[in-house]
């Protein structure tokens, strides 16, 4: 029998992009997930205290789309990590897939991630850096920011990955809960902490090339969020146990096409 899947999507000020997500959930998501050998149980979209019409677009969409499960983030606006953690806590599937509202990494790519889990990985992360990735439309500035950020992450934390910020991540819900419960990062560097905690828990992580089409509409402030993420990575480094940090000495060489 196919394992069940919950998709968790954080949403902040997404009134304009949410209708496209709702349509994808209504028309294609179950088939995309079934082709990956999984059964889609729900798409939890966590509205992170948006002040635009995100909540009403999601509520309206859910009326005609039973798989869509809007969830207000507890305590109002708290950041992407905060919202993802709330979604993970609410997930009912055996596996959980983290994704973004803009579906710049299409849900159909879950097939590649699931293959990695079937191959023995505990966590599969989508990658725009791994050989074979099909990446389109990324502005040069974002590409540069992403590379720089991922270099910083590798140097600071010892993580071997080349694209921590790719939206798609697939893992067992029980693992995701255990990791998310212990996490401190409420903003965009949540993804980095998830991987740091996975490493500390002894979980194996596979970085899997995926198709990705950058959506130019963005909630990311290149200065404020870059500074916040650098600060969060520095804090993460201080929280790490030394053996995990030093694991960077065994890091395998790879391309460094890294993006935020
Ligand atoms: N919960 C929450 N989610 C957010 C916040 N900011 C962005 N998001 C969500 O995070 C996801 C990614 O946001 P984007 O604005 O596309 O940013 P990105 O894809 O990381 O960066 P770009 O490369 O600029 O697209 C979307 O689902 C957003 O709704 C926030 O403050 N809180
Ligand atoms: Mg995006």
TrEMBL record:
Residues 236-249 have a biased composition (Basic and acidic residues). It comes from the Bacteria. GO terms for biological process: protein N-linked glycosylation. Pfam families: Glycos_transf_2. Residues 236-260 are annotated as: Disordered. InterPro entries: Glyco_trans_2-like, Nucleotide-diphossugar_trans. Residues 6-174 form the Glycosyltransferase 2-like domain. This is Glycosyltransferase 2-like domain-containing protein. It comes from uncultured Solirubrobacteraceae bacterium.
């Amino acid at each position: 029998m196919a394992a069940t899947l919950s998709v968790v999507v954080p949403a902040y000020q997404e009134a304009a992009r949410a209708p496209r997500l709702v349509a994808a959930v209504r028309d294609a998501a179950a088939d995309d997930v079934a082709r990956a050998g999984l059964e889609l149980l729900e798409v939890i979209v966590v509205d992170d205290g948006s002040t635009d019409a995100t909540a009403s677009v999601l509520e309206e969409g859910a009326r005609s789309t039973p798989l869509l499960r809007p969830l207000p983030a507890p305590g109002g606006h708290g950041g992407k990590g905060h919202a993802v953690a709330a979604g993970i806590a609410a997930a009912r599937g055996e596996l959980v897939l983290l994704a973004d509202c803009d579906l710049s990494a299409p849900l159909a790519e879950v097939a590649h991630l699931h293959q990695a889990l079937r191959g023995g990985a505990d966590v599969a992360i989508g990658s725009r850096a791994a050989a074979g990735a099909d990446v389109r439309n990324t502005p040069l500035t974002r590409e540069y920011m992403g590379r720089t950020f991922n270099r910083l992450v590798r140097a600071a934390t010892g993580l071997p990955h080349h694209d921590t910020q790719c939206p798609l991540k697939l893992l067992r819900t029980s693992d995701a809960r255990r990791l998310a419960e212990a996490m401190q990062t409420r903003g965009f560097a949540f993804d980095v902490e998830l991987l740091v905690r996975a490493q500390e828990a002894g979980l194996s992580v596979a970085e899997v090339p995926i198709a990705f089409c950058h959506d130019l509409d963005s909630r990311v402030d290149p200065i404020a969020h870059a500074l916040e993420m650098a600060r969060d990575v520095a804090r993460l480094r201080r929280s790490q146990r030394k053996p995990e940090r030093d694991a960077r000495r065994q890091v395998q060489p790879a391309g460094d096409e890294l993006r935020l």
